[in-house]
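## retry 2 of 3
previous attempt timed out at serialization; input unchanged, resubmitting
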Amino acid sequence: MEAAGCTRGMIKSIMMGAVVTGSIGFIAGFFGPMIFTPQANQGPLLGIFITGPLGFILGGVAGLVYWQTKGRKNRE
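## retry succeeded, writing output
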């Protein structure tokens, strides 16, 4: 059962964008500080609390925008 206005393709685009971008943000924020400033013991928290969640949210928005511009034509 789908919500009004939500299609399977839209949900798939949003989740794919969110997972991919969130993973990239998390990896960059987690391992980046360990590589560039190894003496900073709280560096990995950047990936856990900031870049991972922000990447997830921005990726979801980007997936929605992608679906609005490209994926919707497949529905019609």
